[in-house]
Target: Ribosome maturation factor RimM
Amino acid sequence: MAGLVEVLVGIVGRAHGIRGDAFIDVRTDEPGRRFQPGSGLRLSSGKHLTLERVRWHRGRPVVAFEGYPDRTAVESLRGEKLFVDVPGDERPSEPEEYFDRQLAGLRVLDAAGKHAGEVVEVLHLPAQDCLVVETGAGRRLVPFVSALVPRVDLEAGEVQLADVGGLLEDLA
Model:
């Protein structure tokens, strides 16, 4: 059994209405999984919060926390980061999807299977997600699409790139 991993899931935004509701700036790929009535969250200070109600407004969660009955009370939480502890081996709801924390730290192999670098970050850009790969020549961005990254093996701790020139090297 894998241990627990602390995951940032959101940041408390501005209050909404007078009943203690607040917008959440989502920082998780699966907000429907993380923001459920009765779910426990933790602030960076270590203080625990429980979600009393959750609704969605224009694609963003609007939540109420137990013990924060009005606008003034919930305003005191504005800007606070919200964390949860999840099993380290937890997988996303959809197959062929990965959490950023699962990809960061993976070895990057070229098409021939030779070590080429390490994934240090995942960027969520408008066109697609990109892996930030640290190579001996510096950081490179690799679009995280199956045509360019055909193999992800979490158990082996590696991703393998397709045989496409220019992914990790500078072209003259």
In short: Residues 147 and 162 are 7 Å apart (CA to CA). The longest strand covers residues 4-16. The first helix runs from residue 31 to 34. The mean pLDDT is 91.
